Amino acid sequence: MSKAELWRELRASLAFVERNVNLSRRYLGWEVVFLVYTVVNTLSIGLIGVGAPGVPADARLVLYLLTGALLWSFLSVVFTEVGQAVQWERWEGTIEYTFMAPIRLVTYLSGNSLWAVGYATLRTVVLLLATAAFFRLDLSRANAPGAALVLVASGLSFVGLGLVASVLPLLSTEKGAQATNIFQAVLLLISGVYYDVTALPAWLQPLAWLSPATYTLRATRAALIDGAPTASLLPDILRLVAMALVLAPLGFFVFRMGAVYALRTGKLKRNG
Q: Can you give the pTM of this predicted structure?
């Protein structure tokens, strides 16, 4: 690919980011509603560490639960937004035209993935500020740059999983997006979002080490709660990068196969 072609594809990717920004602006009121819902839900989870019956209030437990809630919000938004970009086009009846347009599929997916990571990061920052103010969290020892590095590495892995799940909206306009929640539920169970993975039954624990969320949560908690230096986070960051190198191409391959199947069988026709 020449430099001019590369620049053209990059600009096309940014155009998909701009389209997603405009879609969010169109429904800005609903975006605020769901953000408030997420803030309230996160605060409720944090309060478990303050007032669970029979358990003494523990600032570390509060921070442990809040870190899980914040990270799960980040990862689930990345996961959901990649699939929702397809869902929007299914509802508006434009996806078949997008696939026939003179752009590469990887350009289309890169633009939507870039939007998903950026949007998830923005929401997580708002959530962090809200929870820090509510619980008066002391983050003076936290290694924020290390935690941010972990999030970048995990975002790439979750984009790959999101591409796999976004095949479902391709196949069903009405129920495909909701079905992506199945992927999230499995990850929520096995990744230790609100508990250590050693709490899982022995037969389920091997699956935890296949999930990028497990390493993301472990490394981010070490950075935010214990103030672990970035050098000590590198093993988990490298695992996340290795997972991204596998999951991102796998996600692209699965999505491409799904798109070819949907085009061949006429499933992209808007009829509902």
A: 0.82
